[in-house]
Design a protein that fits this description.
The complex is a heterodimer of chains A (about 450) and B (about 80).
Chain A (H helix, E strand, L loop, with lengths): L16 H4 L14 E9 L6 H10 L5 E5 L3 E6 L11 H6 L2 H17 L11 E7 L4 H12 L12 H5 L3 H10 L5 E5 L4 H15 L4 E8 L5 H9 L25 E2 L1 E9 H6 L6 E10 L9 H15 L8 E3 L6 H14 L7 E3 L2 H4 L6 H9 L2 H4 L1 E2 L23 E2 L5 E8 L3 E8 L5
Parallel strand pairs in A: 3-7, 4-5, 4-6, 10-11, 10-14
Antiparallel strand pairs in A: 1-8, 1-9, 2-3, 6-8, 9-15, 12-13, 14-15
Helix pairs in contact in A: 4-7, 8-14, 11-12
Chain B lengths: L2 H15 L14 H4 L4 H15 L14 H14 L3
Helix pairs in contact in B: 1-3, 1-4
The chains are: A alpha/beta (about 450), B mainly alpha (about 80).
């Protein structure tokens, strides 16, 4: 890993980013402000806090329910059970959307985690950037069902439809709940959206557009039958008699995606601001890349994925050997997993310290939240040096075999300083985000 | 159906659309917006629920008639009676 001046300053001391540039020779991001994570809130099917989520990942505990999907019957799905009334009034819940509620819960929890003195924060300098795979399907399907009970007469169509279905809804609900008057919008990036939200926030902080960002990814996708039907008819909907084994990336008998809901939202700040207020720094954003396959709507392109990871490494000033954990995107589809493994084998040759894992095997595919949640579950590795596994591998697919793949049991390693978080999505959007432990050279 | 019955119908609807509100002290002669946290979208919900649950139509020009429980009862009574309720 290229050496930078991190870890030199004491908390509370200022930091001269421009002066540090010469020490980060070769980094494309060297002249820009460094961005750090100082707070995190999440809800996952197997945890409503980072502590609970992490404990279940290390214990190998998946949590997948079986739900009744409208028009489709029973299917496995990842369902979150966070306390919806912790941060919202019941009226807000009635008017808003499920994903808005997820977003508010995660943002409020992230704020609590950050230690920010919210009353003293200039709310006009706060931005909200949330990645989404899709939005509006749930509410639209509900209304179509609703008016079908009234002869399809549109006078029964709710007047709440438009504010619920505008694409900025999840981020907008956060601003209304928290009194944030800075910018808010969502980033539509298919299943790369969680990373895209974080990257957008980092860019806006570097540009000086905001001083604090709430960023990550969210999803309510289990409440729309359309996504289940679409994957099923694509031959990509996961199933197993034991729902907790339905999501099994890299297993030879994997049969598709388990759809889940969830959210992970981070507080991001510029390093100097975080140091000035004495914030606990969870991790530093080291580099990223988003690119496009430009080949197929659904079949990933390993060549472009390889380029994406290489570019993220270059921007972070790192080489493949510097990466200690690769958090894979693999969704348990027949071809998608192989394509990602091909890309990773292209990049991570001769990398004995690189471990590879997968979180969807525990919680299914949280769609817009996937990348942000999967990164979150790995962040405690910076402190405990444990790497959680990918579970549900009864028979490893030889085409998914990779050195460093952590299978079924967590492993303890000497150190974890870096995480590469992969998230890819339909229409050929690829994202790779690299974070590193704060204070390591 | 009596005027008191109609007031209860409206209160039941409000209980659903404004679940955080205490409805035990609502004064029937006072404007609902002056004693409850209700906005224009909430009043549209009242109109929608009257339509869905009771088949009662309230034209936009008559929304003002829903200002208080008393005015609701006076305005809605003939509509409920016309429905044979």
């Amino acid at each position: 890993m290229a050496r930078g001046p991190i870890g030199k300053g004491k908390r509370g001391a200022g930091f001269d980013f421009m002066a540090s540039g010469h020490l980060m020779e070769g980094r494309q991001m060297s002249s820009k402000p460094r961005i750090v994570i100082t707070g995190l809130g999440l809800t996952a099917p197997n945890g409503n806090s980072l502590g609970e989520f992490r404990a279940n990942l290390l214990a190998g505990k998946a949590r997948i329910a079986v739900i009744d999907v409208r028009h489709m019957g029973k299917h496995p799905a990842g369902v979150c059970d966070f306390d919806t009334t912790k941060w919202q009034k019941r009226k807000e819940l009635r008017i808003g959307t499920r994903v808005g509620s997820i977003s508010i819960f995660c943002s409020r929890e992230a704020l609590s985690d950050s230690g920010l003195d919210w009353d003293k924060v200039d709310k006009s300098r706060v931005g909200v950037y949330l990645g989404i795979t899709e939005h509006g399907n749930v509410e639209t399907e509900n209304e179509i069902h609703n008016i079908s009970q009234f002869g399809n007469d549109t006078k029964y169509w709710t007047h709440h439809h438009n504010p619920r279905t505008v694409a900025n809804n999840p981020a907008g609900e956060v601003t209304m709940n928290m009194g944030i008057t800075g910018p808010h919008y969502t980033i539509g990036a298919a299943c790369a959206a969680g990373n895209a939200g974080l990257i957008q926030a980092a860019q806006m902080l570097q540009l000086g557009e905001v001083d604090i960002a709430f960023a990550g990814g969210v999803s309510e996708s289990i409440h729309t039958f359309g996504i289940f039907a679409g994957f099923k008819n694509q031959g990509a909907l996961g199933a197993h008699e034991d729902p907790t084994k339905a999501s099994r990336p890299f297993d030879k008998n994997r049969n598709g995606i388990v759809i889940s809901e969830g959210g992970a939202i981070y507080v991001l700040e510029r390093l100097d601001d975080a140091l000035a207020r004495g914030a606990r720094i969870i991790a530093e954003i080291a580099g990223w890349c988003i690119n496009s396959d430009a080949t197929d709507a659904v079949l990933p392109n390993p060549e472009r994925q390889t380029e994406c990871v290489h570019m993220a490494l270059k921007r972070a000033g790192m080489k493949p050997q510097d990466i200690h954990i690769v958090s894979t995107h693999a969704t348990a589809t027949a071809l998608g997993d192989i394509q990602e493994c091909t890309a990773l084998r292209n990049v991570f040759t001769d990398c004995p310290d690189t471990k590879i894992n997968n979180t969807k095997s525990f919680i299914g595919h949280c769609m817009g939240a996937a990348g942000a949640l999967e990164l979150a579950g790995n962040l405690p590795s910076f402190e405990d040096n444990w790497v959680h596994p990918t579970i549900n591998i009864d028979e490893l697919d030889p085409e998914c075999a990779m050195p460093g793949l952590v299978i079924n049991q967590p492993i303890k390693v000497a150190r974890v300083d870096t995480i590469l978080n992969n998230s890819f999505g339909m229409l050929g959007i690829n994202s790779a985000l690299i974070v590193k432990k704060y204070g390591v050279a | 159906m009596t005027k008191d019955d109609i007031k209860q119908v409206v209160l039941d609807i409000i209980a659903d659309i404004a679940p955080d509100e205490d409805l035990t002290t609502v004064k029937p002669e006072v404007r609902l917006r002056d004693q409850l946290s209700l906005d224009s979208m909430d009043f549209l919900d009242i109109v929608m629920e009257l339509r869905k649950k009771h088949g009662i139509e309230v034209p936009e020009a008559d929304y003002v008639q829903l200002a208080s429980l008393d005015s609701c009862a006076n305005y809605l009574l003939p509509k409920f009676e016309a429905k044979g309720k």
